[in-house]
Amino acid sequence: MTWVTAGAMAANGLTYVLYLVAGRLLMPAGYGMFASLVTAQVVLAVPALALQAVIARQIAQRGTGQRGTAQAGTMPGRALTYRTAAVVTVLAAVATPLLAALLDTPVPAAAAAMAMAPMLVLLAGEQGTLQGHERFPALGVVLGAAGVGKVLPAAVVLLAGAGATAALAAGTAGTAAAVVLARAVVARDGPARNGRPASDAGADGVENASPTVGATASVLRASQVQLVLMLLTSIDLMVARVVLSETDAGVYAMGSVATKAAFWLPAAVGVVLYPRMARPEHSLRAVRVTLAVLAGLGAAVVACAAAAAPLVPVLVGEQYRPVVGLVWLFALVGAAFAVLQGALLSAIARDATRLAVLAWAGLAVEGAALAAASSVTRMAVTAAACALGTTAAVTVAVLLSLRPPEGAARTVSRSGSARWAARAGRRRVGRTGPS
User: CB-side exposure of 83: number of CA atoms within 13 Å?
Assistant: First the structure.
């Protein structure tokens, strides 16, 4: 947890520095365009998050002896990664002119933002391998390096006087460099902890599997879950760009920095506990711990945001003073969605992605409600109410899906119940033998 938290906080901290630099140098109108393109960039990169989750799940569900190395199984995982990256590249090319028209931004700026998407997919493939094998120190290093690669070149370009388009392109180039580093980190992992060479993994491991239609289908199912999560965390910013004036949209975008901070700050909790969520014998406890920790951290983040709100004009300028009284509300939205992310990650880990239908329903309600908002304050209040309602519905559904069957001491997801029963049967047989 420490390693992943350090890496994630370094990456996210640098991202918030970039937002502050962009907000001060681009002014509200220019910053509104920059923030909306970054948001769209994250939404299009949803397959990257899904790919990482699928690769990590496949590895985590194999025998414990095969989880000691991140080198094992990289070739099939990379084949799936390349296929996903190719699809995302096509989607990015198609989305570029549409995005430019929708957000009223120049086509070069939209293209620079969309070029990031396939780079994130390539990076996610390596991160999924490290996560599934529970190589968390290495994963923390990669997360931190990815943050540096994405943010530092963009910040330098902005400070040099260039605009949003050049900054987005520089961030893409830096992310490409982070992919090369991540590949090197994975390749340097040694033999498994049980002493078996990586090439000797068992026949049931992901190492000897090929990226089949089933694996691709898993990525698609996980993608729709990640997509609804990213849309829920981003729809208010995109609607603000359309409904509000340029200046108000920029002010709202600055407030949404608190949303992003509250959402991504506790991300390490889900990353570390995800492999346990994927194992039937640990799933229930892992999900409960994840949700409890995320809720506690969210409450702390909201309190800190309320206390730090008066610093906003000092850090980014007096033009953003209208958002000071709403910072805690923006943070509440992010904290609620952090809990929602933990619940949906558990659904992906158990391949119970049908639970995401409640999140899609929440998205439809939020979109309609936000479209009727006419000010920064009303939009922030609407976003908070929708976030809390959607999170509560999905969380309850997830916990109910994990309820143990009558008379059972443990519970697992429907997809993992047979494996859990077989393991329980073997344990009972072992106990009935001679003492």
Answer: 16
